[in-house]
Input
Amino acid sequence: MSAFAYKCFVNIASLCNCRCDRTTGEGPDIKQRHPLLNAFQEDILDIPYLNDPEVLDFLRERYEQGYIYTYSGSVLVVLNPFDQVKPDVHGSKLIREFSDEIIQECINNTNAASIAAITNLAVLPRSMKHTILISGESGSGKTETCKSLVLAFGSSMEEDCLPEAAKQMHQLLLHKLQLAYGILDSFGNACTLTTSNSSRYGKLIELQFGLRYNLVNCRIQTYLLESSRIYTQQANERNFNIFYEMIAGTNAQEMRELKMLPMGSYHFLNQGGQVSTEEISVYKQRFGELKRNLREIGLGGDAFQDVQRVLIGILTLGQLQFFNNGDSDSNALQQANESVWENASILLGLNKADLVRILTVKTLITPLKETFQVQLSPQYSEAARDATVKLIYRLLFDKLVGDINNLLVAEER
Output
C-alpha cells in the first residue's frame, strides 16, 4: 500500500465497539451480509455492500493482519498502530518500488489519475499545485503521518540529473524541516487523554520543488493554537511539553539563576495531576534533543536562553494570588506576591509597576475625556492574568515559527 495518498484517519477504538456478528446477522440495520473480503484486498470500494459494520470489520481485519493503510478510492484510510512503524515502511526504497506500479495503473485506468497525482511526483504536472489534506480525531496519528509524508516526497528527487549543490540544498532543507518538527512538538504539543504527544495547533506545510523534484523552499504556517492550555488543564492532561521538558532538563545551578521552582510547585503545571518519575525522565531526554535541534537549526545559544526566561516568566505569573484589600489574609498574600511581581517583571523584561497596573487596574474614559482608574476584583484580575499569558505564549510561538521559516529558505548558490 502506498503511503502517499490522501489520508483520512479512523480511530481504532471505534472499530472495537462496532463489530457485528456475521453468523447471526445481528448488527445495526443491516439486512444482508457477505463473507469478509480477503485481508489482502486494499480498497474498501471492493466490498460488495458498503455499510458501516462491513467497512469497520474490513478495516479491523486488515489492522489485525498488520495493514494500517487501506484505500477508499482516492482516499487513504490510516489506522494508528500505536507503535513505532518499521523504517522500511516509509523508506525511499519502498517509495521507488511503488513508482512504477502507480504509473502503470494510470496507464491502464484513467480513474487512477487522482491516486497517481498524489503518490508519485514523477507523474505530476510540473507547473501545477497540489494539496494533501490530513484529517482525523485527536490521537489518530496525523502528526506522525505528516512527517512520513514529507520524508516520502523528499525521497522523490532525481539525483542523477542534479548538480551536487542542488542535492546538498535538498538534503539540508529536508533535514531542517525534520528538525523543525521536533522543535514544534515541544512548543505546540501536549499530553491529552487520548495521546501523550498531541498537536494542539493546526499547520499548513508548503513544499516547493525544482524541475527534478528537488526541494528548493519550505514554509510552515500555523493556526488555532490552543493557548488556553497555558493556564488550565483538565485532570490527567498536561500543559505544553516545553514547560515540563525545560524544568526536567535544567540543572540545579541554572534553576537557581533563573529562579525556577520544582515542577509540582507551579499552578500552571500541577492542575492535571502529579508528573511521574517515568514522565520526568522522558521530558529530560526530550529537552536534550530539543536543545540539539535548536542548535543545529540555528536557534540555540542566547536566543533560546531568552525563550527560557519568557517561559519561566509565564509560569511565575501563574503564582500570583489576587485578593480584596479587606481580606483577613491580604497582608500575607501581598507580601507573597511582591517577590512574584518582581521575578515576573525581570524575566519578562517589563516594568514592575506597569505589570501590576495591567493586571489589577482598569482605566475608564468618559465621553468628556475624563480618565478614571478602577481596581479590578480578584476574579477580573485573574482573568486579565490568564489573557496576558495566553497572548505572550502565542506571540512566542508565532515568533519561533517565523524564525524557523527564515531558516527554511534556500540559500543562493
About this structure: The first strand starts at residue 6 and ends at 10. The chain is about 45% helix and 10% strand.
